[in-house]
Specification:
CATH class of one domain in chain A: Alpha Beta
Strand content of chain B: 15-25%
Organism (chain B): Marinobacter zhejiangensis
Order of helices and strands of chain A: HHHEE
Largest sheet of chain B: 8 strands, mixed
Number of strands of chain A: 2
Bound molecules: adenosine-5'-triphosphate, magnesium ion
Number of domains of chain B: 1
Shape of chain B: globular
Oligomer: heterodimer
Distance between the termini of chain A: 63 Å
Largest sheet of chain A: 2 strands, antiparallel
Radius of gyration of chain B: 19 Å
CATH superfamily of chain B: P-loop containing nucleotide triphosphate hydrolases
Helix content of chain B: 25-40%
Distance between the termini of chain B: 48 Å
Structural class of chain B: alpha/beta
Number of strands of chain B: 10
Pfam families (chain B): AAA_31
GO molecular function (chain B): ATP binding; ATP hydrolysis activity
CATH class of chain B: Alpha Beta
Strand order of the largest sheet of chain B: 5-6-4-7-3-8-9-10
Strand order of the largest sheet of chain A: 1-2
Strand content of chain A: 15-25%
CATH architecture of one domain in chain A: 2-Layer Sandwich
Protein name (chain B): Septum site-determining protein MinD
Keywords (chain B): ATP-binding, Cell cycle, Cell division, Nucleotide-binding, Septation
Chain lengths: ~80, ~280
């Protein structure tokens, strides 16, 4: 290791940071990639129905479709407010 | 080598391989790549046409040095205002190469699916390769450019936003291309990493080829180094692949060879070993 390399190695390796950030965001976006087009609309309508009974925020309803070889599962997660 | 068979309206089974050059992100080197890949294919004797899909922002003509020979364009052909023969421009350097320029005045929506299909089918009757230079983005123009593709060259810079956008475009290739919609074999994907700077990679300032391959998980077609020759070539309207002495030109030549199935070792991926003096002074 040369004298100059010594100083160089003290700098942060920004490429590693870039790689880690990309791995996370790309994995996240791939997860949402195959979701059917009707999902956002479905989410809005479900929200409206639930709001007839409980007051909840937009992000309290999560809708996802999980596909595997044999069937697809519509997964619905509703977080109710504390009372 | 598998080839895609198109049955045209005349019932002729024509053979043309359709390659889209795409990226999502703008300014990463799609047009530079389209010009060089199409020139490289044509120089190897394959009858090749390169289509500019960037309606409203025509630039391929400049890179190919035929901007003053454009009379009719892609949209004129789609709308029946000119024949393909009238619109195609024959390259002055490589006689098996033709350019179909984009329209400068119309909207991207002028590219209809039916219109593009008709043009591609007609080209398929006489050409071996159809190279589609995609506009940036993931909207209509980019989707039209990739819709009929058999293969895709995903041009990526070693930089966060470019890599992320490449992944987006891969998702579109896998869901919205004709091959995906028809349930055929998927579009064959190739990673072309451009504007690569091995010195900065070694300093930990730039994503490495390995990093990008790991994230995108598609086969590597080539690495094109960041090179001043690219600007000089585009200034003169010379596809950089014709600058045979340059690193970027040779890297494109290798990429063409690999596209045709040849095995070539990857080059230009490590920093030049510096002499004692330049190391002392550059730090
Ligand atoms: N390997 C390289 N080394 C240096 N400069 C490059 C390299 N590749 C491309 N460039 C430069 O990057 C710029 C953008 O290139 P180009 O026009 O090919 O990108 P593009 O992806 O087609 O852009 P757009 O999305 O606007 O269509 C140009 O100035 C070009 O000269
Ligand atoms: Mg371009």
């Amino acid at each position: 290791m040369s004298f100059l390399d010594y100083f160089r190695s003290k700098k942060t390796n920004t490429a590693n940071i870039a790689k880690e950030r990309l791995q996370i965001i790309v994995a996240h976006e791939r997860g949402h990639r195959d979701q059917p087009d009707y999902l956002p609309q479905l989410q809005q309508e479900l929200l409206a129905v639930i709001r007839k009974y409980v007051q909840i925020d937009d992000d309290m309803v999560q809708v996802e479709v999980d596909r595997n070889d044999r069937c697809s599962v519509l997964e619905l997660n509703v977080t109710l407010p504390e009372h | 080598m598998h080839r895609f068979v198109t049955h045209t309206h005349k019932g002729i089974a024509a053979l043309a391989k359709i390659i889209v050059v795409t990226s999502g992100k703008g300014g990463v080197g799609k047009t530079t790549t389209s010009a060089s890949i199409s020139t490289g294919l044509a120089r190897r004797g394959h009858k090749t046409v390169v289509i500019d899909f960037d309606v409203g922002l025509r630039n391929l003509d400049l890179i190919m040095n035929c901007e003053r020979r454009v009379v009719y364009d892609f949209v004129n052909v789609i709308q029946g205002e000119a024949s393909l023969n009238q619109a195609l421009i024959r390259d002055k350097r490589v006689d098996t190469l033709y350019i179909l320029p984009a329209s400068q005045t119309r909207e991207k929506e002028a590219l209809t699916k039916e219109g593009v299909e008709a043009v591609i089918n007609e080209l398929s009757e006489t050409f071996d390769y159809i190279v589609c230079d995609s506009p940036a983005g993931i909207e209509h123009g980019a989707q039209m450019a990739l819709y009929y593709a058999d293969e895709a060259i995903v041009v990526t810079n070693p930089e966060v936003s470019s890599v992320r956008d490449s992944d987006r475009i891969l998702g579109i290739l896998q869901s919205k291309s004709r091959r995906a919609e028809m349930g055929q074999d998927p579009v064959k994907e190739h990673l072309l990493l451009t504007r690569y700077n091995p010195e900065r990679v070694e300093k930990g300032e730039m994503l490495s080829v390995g990093d990008v391959e790991e994230i995108l998980a598609i086969p590597l077609l080539g690495v094109i180094p960041e090179s001043q020759v690219v600007l000089n070539a585009s200034n003169q309207g010379t596809p950089v692949i014709l600058e045979g002495d340059s690193d970027a030109g040779q890297a494109y030549e290798d990429a063409v060879a690999r596209l045709l199935g040849e095995e070539r070792e990857h080059r230009f991926m490590t920093a030049q070993k510096k002499g004692f003096f330049s190391r002392m002074f550059k730090g």
